[in-house]
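[Discussion] Sanity-checking designs against the backbone

I'm trying to build intuition for which residues belong where. Below is a structure token string of 291 positions. I'd appreciate it if someone posts a full sequence so I can compare it with mine line by line.
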């Protein structure tokens, strides 16, 4: 009598098929093809204009204007006084971004623990209460609302209350990023290893001591990393918010477009790129220190 091979049973049970990730990928490809086909066949996409000579002629003329072609005076990006003014505006832009991420980070530090499910429902805090559950749903709702409203819309609303300047732009950026940072930080707490907090609970630590010594030390490095990533995003968004609510490069960029001062636009773009590069390098260095 031959010995029974268990692999034969496995082969009978296992049936060939498409895995969930592969099915998701194929579904995404199908939706992308259908979407592009509907756009291109609709006739309103403007895709055919990319192959017209007039389009690229206009692009060449615009680039020439950015480089100062056709201006009777010295282009702004070759003028020392213009660079000095642009660098002053760049400092205002940096100040707006620092204020924004500072507002958001401080507010998140005060509120992200109640928004964590394992803290609110008693897994880490040691006791489940109706107040904790209500605080969880309330804070999660606040995070959804603040991040659901775009920064530009926040800025348009705040400028009706505060006079245009750096502060309205910083508040608008801070509100939007508060919701994003809050959600990310709460999920960091939900993914923490619960054993240190449980050990503190077994040793007789209070709820506050358990949170201070068992939860925060594990979550703060990740929180700082997320904060620095969001700072990189904020410095890119300041120019958009500056269109409606603040000074800095955004406001002057809008004025330059309105008055067709393309050489100034080129100067502001150069300053903006240097600003973004500098913030990226600083944030990367700070992330290495956190790790």
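Best answer:
Here's mine. Compare freely.
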């Amino acid at each position: 009598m031959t010995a029974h091979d268990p692999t034969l049973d496995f082969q009978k049970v296992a049936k060939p098929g498409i895995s969930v990730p592969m099915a998701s990928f194929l579904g995404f490809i199908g939706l992308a093809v259908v979407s592009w086909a509907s756009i291109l066949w609709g006739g309103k996409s403007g895709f055919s204009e990319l192959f017209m000579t007039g389009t690229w002629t206009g692009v060449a003329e615009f680039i020439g204007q950015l480089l100062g072609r056709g201006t009777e005076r010295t282009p702004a990006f070759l003028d020392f006084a213009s660079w000095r003014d642009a660098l002053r505006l760049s400092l205002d832009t940096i100040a707006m971004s620092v204020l924004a991420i500072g507002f958001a980070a401080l507010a998140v530090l005060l509120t992200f623990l109640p928004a964590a499910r394992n803290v609110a429902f008693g897994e880490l805090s040691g006791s489940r209460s109706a107040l904790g559950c209500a605080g969880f749903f309330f804070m999660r709702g606040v995070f959804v609302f603040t991040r659901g409203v775009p920064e530009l819309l926040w800025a348009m609303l705040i400028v009706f209350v505060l006079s245009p300047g750096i502060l309205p732009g910083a508040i608008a950026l801070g509100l939007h990023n508060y919701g994003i940072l809050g959600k990310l930080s709460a999920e960091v707490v939900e993914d923490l290893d619960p054993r240190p907090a449980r050990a503190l609970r077994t040793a007789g630590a209070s709820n506050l001591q358990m949170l201070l010594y068992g939860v925060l030390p594990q979550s703060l490095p990740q929180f700082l990393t997320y904060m620095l990533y969001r700072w990189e995003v904020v410095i890119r968004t300041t120019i958009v918010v500056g269109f409606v609510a603040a000074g800095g490069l955004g406001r002057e960029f809008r004025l330059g477009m309105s008055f067709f001062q393309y050489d100034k636009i080129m100067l502001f773009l150069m300053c903006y790129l240097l600003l973004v590069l500098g913030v990226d390098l600083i944030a990367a260095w700070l992330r290495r220190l956190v790790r």
